[in-house]
Amino acid sequence: MSTHRQADDFDPPSPRKMFPQNARIDVHHHFFLDAQKKAKKNLEVGWRTPDENLPWKPQTSLAAMDKLGVQITILSPPAISSTSPGAENRTEVRQQNIYASQLCAAYPSRFGFFAGLPFLDDVKGSLEEIAFSLDVLGADGVALISSYGDGNSAKYVADDLYDPIWEELDRRHAVVFLHGAQTPSSTPYPHPWLGVPVSEVPNETYKAAAHLVVSGKKRRFHNVNIILAHLGGSTPFLAPRVAALSHYMGCPLTPGQIVEDFKSFYYETALSAHETTLTAMATFVPSDRLLFGTDFPAVSSKTAEWYTENLENYFAGRPLDLANIMRDNALRLFPNLGKSKDQCPSNGHQISASDQLHTGPCTVNL
């Protein structure tokens, strides 16, 4: 990859000139570099990725984006946690991030990316990956999952052990994409059609958001802009419950402060846009807190299209709100989106030879 230029070495066009008025920006779009690993995880959690999307390749996403009217997507790794920290986990994450940056360099007007981090218990490795991904690769933000580990050893993202990571993200005013973990529950999912991604993942997102709020971390690290996947799962419905009962149980924040902090998240629409959920969100946060997402390629383009039509129909009489959700809110949150990564500040860093993409499961033709 070429040496990045400093930001003042170019005069970039206005973001709105780069994106047509009807362009859509998808902030929830995955990439799967290891089809076998993804298929194995699907069996564990009760999910079926569309056959046509595995093995995944960039052209799979580009074709779906064209069909859905999406100009650019912000890619993120699947919400699959390693079982433990270690050198192998660091290497896998580094390879994923380098691949994503190479894909963005090949298609700068079509892809951005959220960098993955190692298992968060590896605080040192996570801090190193934040610096490498944001300073060297030009990532648009960082992707986190709701918890790390299994069973009683699992830690949610607001755990005190992870404070140095949040401190660094706060210092950088970073954007975090927070997705519920695909961790099998201690009780089995009730039906083959109600696997973990259907019944558990949205609630994991809610639990992580609630943990950030009642622990005071959302308020403490207020410079971090956090996007909750799937409209925050059950967040808008359970936030008032948390406000009253967590305060009753000893949370020093007032009920009003708790609700206020829940409203400070961004919420994206993937697999969640329906009259019922959108009505709830409309009473909970203003439209400038909503972002468009599809969750492709975990679902088919047909499924993503159904939710997109729901979103358009709901906001048919409010074109400014719809434009904010589909495009403008993302442009405000990601001012460098759509620029070549060579145009982004790099603090003088370069990718070393040892950091080049290795052969193996992450080797995918662009």
UniProtKB/TrEMBL annotation:
Q: Which Pfam families does the annotation name?
A: Amidohydro_2
- Entry's Gene Ontology BP terms: secondary metabolic process
Is Aminoacyl-tRNA synthetase one of the keywords?
A: no
Q: What keywords tag this UniProt record? A: Decarboxylase, Lyase
Question: Could you tell me the superkingdom of the organism this chain comes from?
Answer: Eukaryota
Keyword Lyase tagged = yes
Example GO CC term: the record gives: cytoplasm
Q: Give residue ranges for domain Amidohydrolase-related.
A: 25-335
What CDD domains does UniProt report for this protein, alphabetically?
Answer: metallo-dependent_hydrolases
Gene3D superfamilies in alphabetical order: Metal-dependent hydrolases
- Record InterPro entries: ACMSD, Amidohydro-rel, Metal_Hydrolase
Residues of the region (Disordered) are 1-20
The molecular function terms in GO held by this entry are:
carboxy-lyase activity; hydrolase activity
Family membership noted in the UniProt record: Belongs to the metallo-dependent hydrolases superfamily.
What name does this protein carry?
Answer: Amidohydrolase-related domain-containing protein
**Species:** Suillus placidus
**Lineage start:** Eukaryota, Fungi, Dikarya, Basidiomycota, Agaricomycotina
